[in-house]
Each structure stands twice: as structure tokens, then as C-alpha cells.
Design brief:
By secondary structure, the protein is of the alpha/beta class. The chain folds into two domains: 1-27 and 104-197, P-loop containing nucleotide triphosphate hydrolases (Rossmann fold), CATH 3.40.50.300; 42-99, no CATH class. The protein contains nine helices and seven strands, in the order βαβααββααββαααβα. A hairpin with a 2-residue loop joins strand 3 (57-58) and strand 4 (61-62). It starts with a strand and ends in a 5-residue tail after the last helix.
Length: 197
């Protein structure tokens, strides 16, 4: 089995690329989705997060906007949250690997791959990248997003240029979906051959 770490800064199109890998039959572990399950309604981390960061949860689980406000720009608070979340996500990842042990290729969709040292736990790193103006346009169109919040998020992410330099493969997402899909197919073909699709 070859493991891919799929990453990219906010708004680069990583979710779209992850879906393209899945469409080709490649199992994809979505770290964000795992976090949403753990922090969602009846999620197993909700009570611990509420205890650590009061008034950040409700009937539907963690209020991500409130939790973000509690930790963004507060490195010590963010470290406490990560110490709670990362081990739980690692357990979900191990279960995913066990379920897909026969697959020749799996993808780990991990937004903060470099920031958490995750590149050392995968065989290949794929970075999704788009021009800065496209990235900002995409992110600022999201509900509840504003320029200051985007800047705070980007400040804690490894810069796009550094991610691209450290990648085994870069998938550009500034063009058409067909171009992006072709880039995904090229990565799959390089790693397991065209018959693997």
C-alpha cells in the first residue's frame, strides 16, 4: 500500500481533489470529516471541549466559530485543543487503514499535514495549489468568513510556496475541473499505473 498525504492551504480546492481521488476508487481518509464527527452532535470530544473551552458547544456539538475564536491567535489554547483532538483523529485513521488494508493506494486528506509533522507518516505528499487571488476569492465567499479571520488562519499554515517545494506532486486547481482531474489521474498513474484507476 502506498499512502498519500493530501494537503493544501485553505481555499485551494483540496476537498474537490480528494473527491476526485475517491471517484477513481481510491479510499480517502478526511481528517476534517473525522474532526466533525468527533465534535458533532453526540461526538465523543464535545464534553471535553466544553470543559476546556466553556460556551463553545451546544445541542449540535461544537460551535466551530466560537471554538475558533477561543483558540485562533492563542497558541497555548490551540495546543491544548490539539492535544485533545489529534490522538482521537489518530484512532480514526488507524481504523480507516485497517478497513482498507488491501487497497494499493490510500489518501489521507490532512489540511495541516506539514504543520503537524504528518508528512513523515505518509509515503508521498500531494499539495493542492491555486493562485492567491483565486484562493482569497473562494475563502471570502464562505459564510462567516472575513479577511481578518482568513489572515489569522493563513498565519498558522505553512506558506503555499513552501508546501509546493516540499511536495512530491503538485495539483494545480486554478484552471478547469477537467485540468485538475487530469492532474489527479496523472498522480494515480505514476503511483499505481493507469490500470489502478
Amino acid at each position: 500500500m502506498i499512502t498519500i498525504g493530501l494537503t493544501g492551504s485553505i481555499g485551494m480546492g483540496k476537498s474537490t481533489v480528494a473527491a476526485m481521488f475517491a471517484d477513481r476508487g481510491i479510499p480517502v481518509f478526511d481528517a476534517d470529516a473525522a474532526v466533525h464527527r468527533l465534535q458533532g452532535k453526540a461526538g465523543r470530544l464535545v464534553a471535553a471541549i466544553e470543559a476546556m473551552f466553556p460556551d463553545t458547544t451546544g445541542p449540535e456539538g461544537v460551535d466551530r466559530t466560537r471554538l475558533g475564536e477561543a483558540v485562533l491567535g492563542h497558541p497555548a489554547a490551540l495546543k491544548r485543543l490539539e492535544a485533545l483532538v489529534h490522538p482521537a483523529v489518530a484512532e480514526e485513521r488507524a481504523a480507516f487503514l485497517a478497513e482498507n488494508s488491501a487497497a494499493p493506494l490510500v489518501v489521507f486528506d490532512i489540511p495541516l499535514l506539514f504543520e503537524t509533522g504528518g508528512e513523515s507518516r505518509v509515503d508521498k505528499v500531494v499539495v493542492v495549489s491555486a493562485p492567491t487571488d483565486i484562493q482569497r476569492h473562494r475563502v471570502l465567499a464562505r459564510p462567516g468568513m472575513h479577511a481578518d479571520r482568513l489572515d489569522a488562519i493563513l498565519a498558522r499554515q505553512t506558506p503555499d510556496a513552501e508546501k509546493r517545494a516540499r511536495a512530491d506532486y503538485v495539483i494545480p486547481t486554478g484552471g478547469s475541473l477537467a485540468e485538475t482531474r487530469a492532474a489527479v489521474d496523472a498522480v494515480i498513474a505514476c503511483l499505481i499505473g493507469p490500470e489502478g484507476r
